[in-house]
Structures are given as C-alpha cells and as structure tokens.
Amino acid sequence: MTAPRSVLIVGESLAGTTAARHLRTLGHTGPLTIIGAEEHGAYSRPPLSKVVLKDPAADQTLGLVLDGIDVDVIRSAAVAADTRRRTVTTADGRQVGYDALIVATGADARRLAAPGQRGELVLRTLDDARQLRARLAHAGSAIVVGAGFLGMEVASACAARGIPVTVVDADRPLERILGDHLSAEITARASAHGIRFIQATGFATLTGDPVSGVALPDGTELTADLVVTCAGEAPCVGWLAGTGLADRLGVGIDHACATTVPGVFAAGDVTYLRGDGTRPDRRAPFWSNAVAQGRTAAASALGLPPPGPAQDDYFWTEVAGLTVKIVGRLPLLGEPTTVQGSVSDGRALLTWSQADGTSTAVAYGLRRPVAALRALAATSLPPPP
Ligand SMILES: Cc1cc2nc3c(=O)[nH]c(=O)nc-3n(C[C@H](O)[C@H](O)[C@H](O)COP(=O)(O)OP(=O)(O)OC[C@H]3O[C@@H](n4cnc5c(N)ncnc54)[C@H](O)[C@@H]3O)c2cc1C
Predict the structure, then answer these.
(1) Nearest to 306 by CA among 260, 259, 254, 358
(2) From the CA of 56, how far away is ligand 1's center (Å)?
(3) pLDDT, tens digit, for every residue of 214-240?
(4) What distance in Å separates the CA atoms of residue 208 and residue 230, rounded to the nearest whole number?
(5) Residues 253-279: tens digit of each pLDDT
(6) Where are its TM segments located (predicted)?
(7) In the CATH scheme, what is the code of domain 126-229?
(8) C-beta 66 within 6 A of ligand 1
(9) How far apart are the C-alpha atoms of 336 and 272, rounded to whole Å?
C-alpha cells in the first residue's frame, strides 16, 4: 500500500489524539486533521467519576494535550461520511477530504428516559460531570440506575458526600464484569459505606417529568432528589449512516483496526473487535484499548504493521475507596487463586484462569504497578484440578 497523503481523524479524545501523535511519531508528514464535536477539546474521562464530582479544581487537570504536533483541529460534529468520494461533512458545513480516515467518535451514555421525558442525568462528558457535581451539592438523596463500574463510582461519590444512595440493577454490583466472588465482597463493602443496593427482577424505568424516581418491575417505586442513569454506553455512529461501517455494536474492526471499507480504520469506544468463528464479536470500551487501538489505527493507516494487539486488557475502577486493577480477560468467573493477602481484608492479589487458556490478574485494594500485573497474568498457570 502507498502511504496516504492526508489523514483525517474524527473524534478528538483519547483514541483520536493518540492516533494523531502516533501518526507524526511514525513519520507521517502530510496533512493531518482532527474533527471534534466537544468545545472543551480532548480530555480524560476516568477522573470525571473519581475526582471531578468531588473537586472543581480537577476540571483544570484533565486535558489530553497534542504536544504541539502539527494538526488542524476542526471543532464541529461530523454529520456524514462518503467513503466512495472520501469526504466527511461537518455540522458547520465543511467538507473535508481524506486519503485515510480514522473513526474515533467513542460512545455516548445510554439513556433510559422515555421520549420527551426531561431531566435524565448521565455521566459521559465534562459538562455532565459539572452538572452532576452542582446537583450533588444540594441533594439529600440519590438513586443510581446501573451497578456497573460507572454506577458504583457515582454511588461512591454520593456516599463520600454523606448522601444516602440506592443503586438499582438486575445484576449485583459489578457482577457482569467481576463475577460472583468479587461482586459479593464489593457489595458488602459498598453497604458498609452507606450504599444501599436493590436487585430488580428486570429493567427499571424512570418516573417523573423531570425525572424524580424509578419504577421497578415488581411495582416498587423509589424517589430521590437526584436520579442518575449509568446504564452503559452507545457507540457514536449516527454520522456513519449509509456507509455500511457501523452496526448495533459500533464499528467492527480486525486486529489491525481496519474496517470493512478500504482506507477506513477505527479505534476506541466506537469499535468492537470482529469475531472470527472461534471468538465472538467483542466490545471492550476501556481506556487502555483506546490507547492501543489509536496507535494500531495510526500504523495501519500508514500501511505499517500493527505495533501490538488491537485489544489491551487492562482496566481499573474505584469503589467505596478501594481501587481494583485488572489485567486480562473479563468476566471473572468462578473462584480465583489467591497469590497474596485476602479479599475479605480488602487487600489481595488474585488470578483467574480463563476458558481460553489465558490468565487474568487482579490487584484488589493493593498497590501494584500495571507492569507487575501484566507479568503475573502472563506467567500464572491454571490451578491444579
Ligand atoms: C466517567 C467515566 C469514567 C471512566 N473510567 C474508566 C476507568 O476507570 N478505567 C477505564 O479503563 N476506562 C474508564 N472509562 C472509559 C474511558 O474513558 C474510555 O474508554 C475512553 O474515553 C475512550 O476513548 P475514545 O477516544 O475512544 O472515546 P471518547 O472518550 O468517547 O471520545 C470520543 C470523542 O468523539 C467525539 N464525537 C462523537 N461523535 C462525533 C462526531 N459525529 N463528530 C465529531 N466528534 C464526535 C465525542 O464528543 C468525544 O469527544 C471511563 C469513562 C467515563 C465516561
């Protein structure tokens, strides 16, 4: 493949800025343009739920800088793409051509409000976090819909402010990703921190207009000053309508971050790794993947070999003051091998053997460099039968 003259990246966040930096590092000297929809430019999202909800000073520390690299930034949403003519149209009426396109438009929060129902709160952007922080300052009670990592982080922020908070989900806290064993421990820890959990028998619906509560399938109705939906994310693919690039899961990519359309690559939360008959399609909307895929998409756009795997299985979260770092495949099914410490004491190093022969290493409330966890995951053997 001949190296492309111009590269266009759509999405100015972690995957997009990583790709831009890597394109220049790899020697791309031609035109490089980023189209981004957010007026704040690129910033880091993990601190939104961990520190921004508590501390307004944190707003100033989130920027993902482009390190003075030579890139044109257009701050307007992409509204359409024509992959035959190789152009992208923006909301402010520009038409930007490209030789290679990197799709990095991430995801938005999945919403549960009925059409026309006002006042649903979510947490995906800096503006969402600011709005939520302002509401937390005056809230006497809160409900969080969704007990995944984001829901538990938001509930932790409520509890840290002394706000009584109820988390509602059909599955126990973090069970879908961390499995039974850690879910039980985390539920107990969260409860000790004042986070109440209600296991619903199905989907909760938001009540009130503006939203002021939830209704559970068994008829229970709950109300609170603050109701926050943390029900997962929806890939931002509306602007790709008609291109055949996207489906329900997002933009399908292979190990080189290539899509099914020549000259188009994708990275980060907008993507899923296409299955190959032995493996199912797999979404992994985490920080380390956006970085790994930003680099891979940059290399592939220049016709170079991928610098590493297109999915990097490192993830972390913070629940009720406890940090959990994980390297390896999720979910964590069955019992772990305890390498050090004990989960009930809130400090443990654990490994899980996965069905595909890989291992997952977890530092639970224990400070461990990610490199050490990677080494542990790489060397752990399955426990004896
Ligand atoms: C509150 C929160 C906490 C998190 N905590 C963790 C954590 O602890 N650990 C972890 O591993 N991961 C965490 N994540 C996930 C992590 O932040 C994401 O995986 C990462 O941000 C993905 O980066 P991305 O660049 O692919 O997408 P995004 O960060 O979603 O960025 C996509 C960008 O594209 C823009 N865009 C969308 N559509 C268009 C369009 N049509 N035109 C132009 N621009 C567009 C968006 O405005 C956005 O700026 C967290 C996420 C959130 C929201």
Answers:
(1) 254
(2) 20
(3) 999 999 999 999 999 999 999 999 999
(4) 18
(5) 999 999 999 999 999 999 999 998 888
(6) none
(7) 3.50.50.60
(8) no
(9) 28
